Automatic annotation (TrEMBL):
Spans annotated as Disordered: 60-83
Protein name: Kelch repeat-containing protein
PANTHER family named in the record: OS04G0487100 PROTEIN, PTHR46773
Organism of origin: Manihot esculenta (Cassava)
UniProt KW keywords: Membrane, Transmembrane, Transmembrane helix
Bilayer-spanning residue ranges: 12-31
């Protein structure tokens, strides 16, 4: 009896162990196939989803990609185009279908810069200021000569002049520089304005703006310097104000700025152009990074941003009129445009945030807006996505330099601040 009872207990113990083992295998299978391990694939239309790292994208301006990481995900082409990675279009990141363009890599700028400014006068591209890193800003001008494709002629800016988020425009000789951020990180703006005589390289003070702004839309129209929108003194709140000042030959003809009709939608980082005696503002955003409260270095802290695709025009009626919107929302394009014949060409920028990670998404397309037919088209792809790039045009070649590029073909979030210069032969749609 004792032996039989012991045998029965042994059999029960074996059965229990087998049962527990089977339960563990089934539970492990169910857990592995649960949504927690499915890479956040909540929408089957979002293919090849990549979850970027979670650090603040603005701080990416400080750090280049670790050695070897910049090449991840790239497929090198053979021959003279070997430096241009294949573009992988992912629905997740909202790249728009666009023709391939052949890009040539030119001599890089002397320094990398983010949120800088650029003005082209004839065959020279004047490149101003900008962040070198989040903790360092440039206070000089570099010049690119399109005739011989070389950099040279560097000279200093006034010590009191803003270093980023500038408003800037030219009459063909004099460059008017209005307001902007003074210093690195997310420091405050200055209301100071200046004029540069590009023939003598002499600087001159001009009437300050009524209040300081970040990245206002700026243009010369009908003999007046127009300054519109931007961000208010806290760097985040959209501004709607519109001022103008009569100017000629690098001098103010009035003692105060005149209040004009406010822009319909406030905010910074938009393109602003004049064509056929009409004033246009394109794209932009509401909101921006702010200084962290109490930070002694004004450390940048992320806030909500809304990028938009709006296009507005001001004409003889002095009323803003809405025009057909951009192919997708686009910001950080204040110096990323040129006018070619009857068209506006815009290069890169930033668009709506990633729908899942909420990270910033850079733009890798070239857009054309026919200012006669008022039709938009996507005319090509860039070598990579890039924001706050600086654009010029010479002998049919479209150039861009500087800005902040993406992490790779499959990751549109910002990474490295660049000084590279690229060009492509421009072909526009009719």
């Amino acid at each position: 009896m004792v032996r039989t009872a012991g045998k029965q207990k042994s059999v029960r113990l074996v059965l229990v162990c087998v049962g527990l083992l089977g339960f563990g295998v089934i539970a492990n299978y169910l857990w592995a196939s649960s949504p927690r391990l499915s890479n956040w694939s909540v929408d089957n239309s979002l293919t090849n989803l990549i979850i970027p790292r979670t650090e603040d994208p603005f701080s990416d301006a400080t750090f280049p990609a670790p050695k070897g990481e910049a090449d991840k995900g790239k497929k090198k082409k053979k021959g003279k185009d070997k430096d241009i990675p294949d573009r992988f279009l992912s629905a997740t990141f909202a790249d728009l279908p666009a023709p391939e363009l052949k890009w040539d890599k030119m001599a890089p700028a002397p320094v990398p810069r983010l949120d800088g400014a650029a003005i082209q006068i004839k065959n020279l591209l004047y490149v101003f200021a900008g962040y070198g890193t989040i903790d360092y800003v440039h206070s000089h001008v570099d010049i690119y000569n399109f005739t011989d494709n070389t950099w040279g002629g560097r000279f200093d800016m006034p010590k009191e002049m803003a270093h980023s988020h500038l408003g800037m425009v030219t009459d063909g000789r004099y460059i008017y520089i209005v307001t902007g951020q003074y210093g690195p990180q997310c420091r405050g703006p200055t209301a100071r304005t200046f004029v540069l005589d590009t023939e003598t390289k002499q600087w001159r003070d001009m009437l300050p703006l009524p209040v300081p702004r970040y990245a206002p839309a700026t243009q010369l129209w009908r003999g007046r310097l127009h300054v519109m929108g931007g961000s208010k003194e806290n760097r985040h709140t959209p501004a709607f104000e519109h001022w103008s000042l009569a100017v000629k030959d690098g001098k103010a003809l009035e003692n105060e700025w005149r209040t004009e009709i406010p822009i319909p939608r406030g905010g910074p980082h938009r393109a602003c152009v004049v064509f056929d005696d009409r004033l246009y503002i394109i794209g932009g955003q509401e909101g921006d990074f702010m200084a962290k409260p109490g930070s002694p270095i004004f450390k940048c802290s992320r806030r909500n941003e809304v990028v938009f695709d709006n296009v507005y025009m001001l004409d003889d009626d002095m009323k803003w009129k809405a025009l057909p919107p951009m192919p997708k929302p686009d910001s950080h394009i204040e110096f990323a445009w040129v006018i070619v014949n009857n068209s506006l060409v815009i290069v890169g920028g930033t668009t709506d945030k990633h729908p899942i990670t909420k990270r910033m998404v850079l733009v890798g397309e070239v857009f054309q807006f026919n200012l006669v037919t008022l039709k938009w088209s996507v005319i090509g792809k860039l070598p990579y996505r890039v924001k706050t790039t600086l654009v010029g045009l010479w002998n049919g070649w479209l150039y861009f330099t500087s800005g902040q590029r993406d992490r790779g073909p499959d990751d549109p979030t910002p990474k490295k601040v660049i000084g590279e210069m690229w060009r492509t032969k421009l072909k526009l749609n009719s």
